């Protein structure tokens, strides 16, 4: 979930990338005890959702959301997707120095995943990317809007980040609405922002800065007009 927010990276690719980064760090700090610490995954509570570390019991629901057509439509989750892939993906969601992945729990069960991925900048420029997917059974009930708010607060107030970025294929209105509520400005349309299932697509990119209001800044109807024009004019539809 390039590990851009809309993505669900191929688990094998992601694990290979992780191992390469671990190796680079091992080389960089050989002879020192300077290895970056994994970022904690604290429990965060909203009014109807709880964000928590993933657990082995989430496997079946993760598999369901990875084969869901809307997930396939808007993310780069591999398709077809197997149980083995879900197992490997789940294994990679634990604490890491570069990323925090939370399971979103709603009604007492797994309802999606949201993650922050650090860009690895110096402390005073610390920033990262927000990515998420909701399980199809709970979409449209505000789970992701709440989760985004909790995670954005965590990024700025606990991790000390300066920027949180969000990207999506042009046309993914539901994804933008979930971040719009936390103050993300109306996105820019970026030509050929990402590779998606073998082709380049135009994408939306928006950045929230730490001193900006964390509430919707543009009325939704106004934002929607801009988004619809982007979707109409995109040369490489999402
Ligand atoms: C996008 C997604 C994460 C939103 O999760 P969610 O839990 O349903 O989000 P919320 O309920 O908090 O808010 C979604 C809002 O978008 C709206 N929305 C959804 N699709 C829409 C569309 N096509 N046009 C306009 N609004 C739309 C919903 O009505 C809701 O608004 P409301 O709260 O005012 O009713 C979820 O639909 C999903 O997982 N989609 C497939 C994967 C994906 O797109 N991931 C993001 C990649 S960047």
Summary keywords:
alpha+beta, 238 residues, Aminopeptidase, binds coenzyme A, eight-stranded mixed beta sheet
Task: Kindly describe this structure.
The chain is an alpha+beta fold and 238 residues long. The protein has a single domain, classed as 3-Layer(aba) Sandwich (Aminopeptidase). 34% of the residues lie in helices and 24% in strands. The protein contains 7 helices and 8 strands. Strands 1-2-3-4-5-6-8-7 form an 8-stranded mixed beta sheet, with helices on both faces. The N terminus is likely disordered.
Gap from first CA to last CA: 16 Å
User: What's the CATH C level?
Assistant: Alpha Beta
Small-molecule components bound: coenzyme A
Strand order in the largest sheet: 1-2-3-4-5-6-8-7
Q: How many alpha or pi helices?
A: 7
Question: How would you summarize this macromolecular structure in one to three sentences?
Answer:
With 238 residues, the chain is an alpha+beta fold. It has helices at residues 11-28, 59-67, 69-74, 83-91, 143-158, 173-180, 220-233; strands spanning 44-45, 50-52, 99-106, 109-118, 127-134, 163-169, 188-196, 199-209. The protein has a single domain, classed as Gcn5-related N-acetyltransferase (GNAT) (Aminopeptidase), CATH 3.40.630.
């Amino acid at each position: 979930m390039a590990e851009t927010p809309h993505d669900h990276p191929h688990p094998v690719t992601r694990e290979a990338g992780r191992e390469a980064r671990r190796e680079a760090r091992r080389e960089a700090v050989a002879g020192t005890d300077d290895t970056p610490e994994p970022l904690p995954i604290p429990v965060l509570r909203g009014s109807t959702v709880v964000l928590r570390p993933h657990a082995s019991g989430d496997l079946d629901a993760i598999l369901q959301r990875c084969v869901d057509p809307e997930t396939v439509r808007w993310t780069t989750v591999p398709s077809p997707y197997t149980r083995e892939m879900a197992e490997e993906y789940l294994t990679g969601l634990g604490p890491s120095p570069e990323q925090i992945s939370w399971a979103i729990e709603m009604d007492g069960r797994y309802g999606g995943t949201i993650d922050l991925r650090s860009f690895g900048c110096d402390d005073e420029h610390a920033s990262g990317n927000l990515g998420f997917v909701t399980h199809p059974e709970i979409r449209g009930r505000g789970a992701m809007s709440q989760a985004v708010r909790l995670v954005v607060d965590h990024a700025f107030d606990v991790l000390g980040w300066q920027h949180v970025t969000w990207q999506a294929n042009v046309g993914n209105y539901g994804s933008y609405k979930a971040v719009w509520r936390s103050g993300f400005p109306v996105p820019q349309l970026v030509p050929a922002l990402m590779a998606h299932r073998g082709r380049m697509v135009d994408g939306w990119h928006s950045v929230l800065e730490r001193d900006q209001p964390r509430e919707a800044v543009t009325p939704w109807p106004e934002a929607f007009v801009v988004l619809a024009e982007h979707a109409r004019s995109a040369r490489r539809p999402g």
